[in-house]
Specification:
Number of helices: 5
Shape: elongated
Distance between the termini: 89 Å
CATH topology of one domain: lipopolysaccharide transport protein A fold
Largest sheet: 27 strands, mixed, barrel
Oligomer: single chain
């Protein structure tokens, strides 16, 4: 009865402020405006539930004081503990002494001598916070004052000192961070490093997200002995069907570093644009065309390869390539028709100028999709493609390819065998423009090549079911024969010379892309083995060509491919090509994978023989070893290693070894890495061997390394 009386009394007072309050207590004493309750008090107000040993309520001021073992729950978000609390429901003010708050979602807790709250904010004086166990936390941050927005989960801490154990890691007069993943403007985790060659490295990224359809990341960097620069990434979603990204950067070399390292350029700059639109015609031109249109753009330009090298101090997150491709693809597609336009621009970063590099600007294509008649016994389609092959200096060409394949097929013996006859009509024309630069005596004449080929094929596939496995066997035999062929001009003058594999890289053959047609038989054998859960256990393929018109070779290369899932944790893959003429393998690739008991291993080796005499720039043999090893000891410790080695050149390409220690509230990683990266010097294409030590530290939830960046990098002396 006393509980009910007190509840009704306080409810009537709270209704003045328009809020409903329920208070329960074991005993009550009322004198004038003061109402005292004891023996355990529970207050329910909106989403708040408060518990205390006793309380005092002043009906005149609206203040309620709580004493002893105070606990505050706000839904599932946090709890606050203290010995003393003062609440004013009308003013929505709360004071706790001492103060303790725990956020269930982020597992962050804060403790202080005093904490006060309003409807949405929390203010704390002289406290400590951490995401670790409150008893002897691994890391903690002490502060003189802190404010926290419970709605946005944004925290501002002042005079903050970060400790690992009892060791002071750093001090900052201000730090702000979020406890959720909402996009917002602010500073990202900085990167600090030291290089024997480049000096102290510092990068402080700034993230700007003022609207929900775009964001901007700016990354200024300083390398004390080398120079300074800035890189930026702008991401946007301009409609429901399109989005893009623009990246750009600039780095200025110090004069001393530039001269000592004989670099080609004293500054490095570039930009990259990615854009994707899945219905650009209707969107841009206001049409209502049926079918589908699409636009994809990937545009890159930079003055040298160091633009890529300097984009980050962490070689684990970037790959340096000396050949880059820019492209724009557009298409319009209907049920039977396809129209496409493609632009390709190649840039070789290992040379000072790309004036002689061949570009395809543009390629136009029309394709008529596969059609059938005579009850699907006759199939046909058509394709035409025009390539404008151009460059600033040197010969240019306009090449057009036309292709018309015709197929007549049927099945025999109750569909055990499928037989088909294919006739393919092909034509290519070339029209040359411009002058050869420098003059090499290659005078190309306009010309055409017309030919048709005939192919007879028979195929069969059989399936047999066993108790635990299903076995699928397929066999296909085809015979291809050249038909009529006619050629003129460029094709007639260069056919014999450019058909020789020794002349493939000769400048005379840079426009010649015609493969001779052989009278040949192709044999393909495939088999699959599936377990009773329809999972592939074995895939095996054998392929062999037999030539009937080749003057030297009777047999083409025998290809064997095997993918064997030996167990659920062990796999083996093999691909081999055997050359009968050379009596050698032209390619052998083996890969073994193991994943069990926390161990993840992948080892591979590639061997290739081009059978072409080696030159200063071209090697005959390739022998390359790659390996990755990972081991997860338990939920806390994991180790990894990587090693790539060029056996033929006797060069180590890359290597790294490291470990990661993970706890609920923090991650700590240490890694040593070596990598060979290309550079452009005044003496031409060159490279350096980088050696790094990476230290990564993530303190949850105030730090989240979303891009895998290292907090600290130490670069050892380079090898040139």
């Amino acid at each position: 009865m006393l509980k009910l009386l007190l509840s009704l009394l306080l409810l009537s007072l709270a209704l003045i402020a328009g809020d409903k309050v329920e208070i329960y207590a074991s005993s009550i004493d009322s004198k004038g405006d003061i109402v005292t309750s004891s023996g355990g008090v529970t207050l329910v107000y909106k989403e708040y539930i408060l518990h205390a040993d006793r309380s005092v309520y002043n009906r005149k001021t609206g203040d309620m004081e709580l004493f002893g073992n105070i606990r505050l729950n706000q839904g599932k978000s946090y709890k606050a503990l203290g010995k003393y609390a003062k609440l004013n429901l009308a003013k929505k003010e709360r004071l706790f002494q001492p103060f303790f708050m725990s956020d269930n979602e982020s597992q962050l807790w804060m403790s202080a001598a005093e904490g006060s709250t309003t409807d949405k904010d929390i203010f704390i004086k002289s406290g400590v916070l951490s995401g670790c166990n409150p008893i002897d936390p691994i890391w903690k941050m002490e502060f003189s004052s802190l404010d926290y927005d419970a709605k946005t989960k944004w925290t501002n801490a002042y005079n903050a000192r970060l400790y690992i154990g009892d060791i002071l890691l750093f001090y900052t007069p201000y730090i702000g961070y979020s406890l959720d993943h909402t996009r917002r403007t602010g500073l990202l985790i900085p990167s600090v490093g030291y290089s024997v060659n480049e000096g102290v490295y510092f990068e402080q990224p700034l993230y700007i997200a003022e609207q929900n359809w775009w964001d901007l990341q700016i990354k200024p960097q300083l390398r004390s002995s080398r120079g300074y620069g800035v890189y930026q990434t702008f991401r946007f979603v301009d409609s429901k069907i399109s989005h893009g990204e623009i990246r750009a950067g600039y780095f200025k070399e110090n004069e001393k570093y530039f001269r000592e390292n004989k670099l080609q350029n004293s500054s490095h700059y570039g930009f990259e644009v990615d854009y994707d639109n899945s219905d650009f015609i209707n969107q841009w031109f206001g049409t209502a065309l049926e079918g589908q249109s699409g636009l994809y753009a990937e545009i890159k330009h930079m003055n040298d390869v160091d633009y890529i090298n300097l984009a980050t101090n962490n070689i684990q997150n970037s790959t340096t390539a000396t050949q880059i491709l820019s492209r724009i693809n557009m298409f319009y597609n209907k049920e039977k028709h396809y129209l496409g336009a493609y632009l390709k621009y190649y840039q070789d970063l290992a040379v000072a100028s790309n004036a002689q590099t061949l570009q395809k600007l543009p390629t136009l294509q029309y394709h008529y999709y596969l059609n059938t008649f005579l009850k699907d016994h006759f199939l046909y389609n058509f394709d035409i493609k025009a390539n404008n092959i151009t460059r600033t200096l040197g010969k240019k060409a306009l090449q057009t390819d036309m292709n018309l394949p015709l197929t007549l097929q049927t099945s025999l013996f109750d569909e055990y065998i499928t037989v088909a006859y294919d006739a393919n009509i092909y034509m290519q024309t070339s029209q040359f423009l411009g002058e050869e630069y420098p003059s090499s005596g290659n005078e190309y004449k306009n010309g055409y090549l017309f030919r048709n080929t005939h192919t007879l094929s028979a195929a069969s596939q059989l399936i047999r079911k066993y108790d635990e496995y299903s076995h699928v066997v397929g066999l296909r035999v085809s015979y291809n024969r050249a038909g009529v062929e006619s050629k003129s001009g460029f094709y007639e003058d260069n056919a014999e010379f450019c058909a020789d594999p020794e002349n493939v890289r000769n400048p005379r053959c840079e426009f010649y892309n015609i493969t001779p047609v052989q009278d040949e038989m192709q044999l393909d054998f495939t088999q699959y083995l599936y377990d009773n859960k329809a999972r592939e256990v074995i895939y095996h393929r054998l392929a062999q060509k037999i030539f009937y018109s080749h003057a030297v070779e009777k047999y083409g290369e025998l290809e064997n491919e095997l993918d064997y899932k030996i167990t659920s944790f062990l796999s083996y893959y093999n691909n081999m090509l055997y050359n009968y003429t050379q009596k050698r393998f032209s390619k052998i690739f083996n890969e073994v994978g193991y994943h069990d008991y926390g161990v993840n291993v992948r080892l591979s080796h590639l061997y290739k023989d081009s059978f072409i005499e080696a030159t200063d720039t071209l090697a005959r043999y390739t022998s390359y070893l790659t390996s990755t090893i990972g081991y997860t000891y338990d939920t806390h410790y994991s180790f990894n290693a990587l090693y790539n080695y060029d056996i033929e050149a006797k060069e180590k390409k890359s290597m790294e070894v490291g470990f990661l220690y993970k706890q609920r509230c923090w991650d700590f990683g240490l890694k040593y890495s070596e990598n060979r990266r290309p550079i452009l010097t005044t003496e031409g294409d060159s490279f350096v061997d980088d050696r790094y030590i990476y230290l990564s530290l993530v303190l949850r939830p105030i730090m989240q390394a979303s891009d895998g960046s290292s907090l600290l990098t130490w670069q050892l002396p380079q090898k040139k």
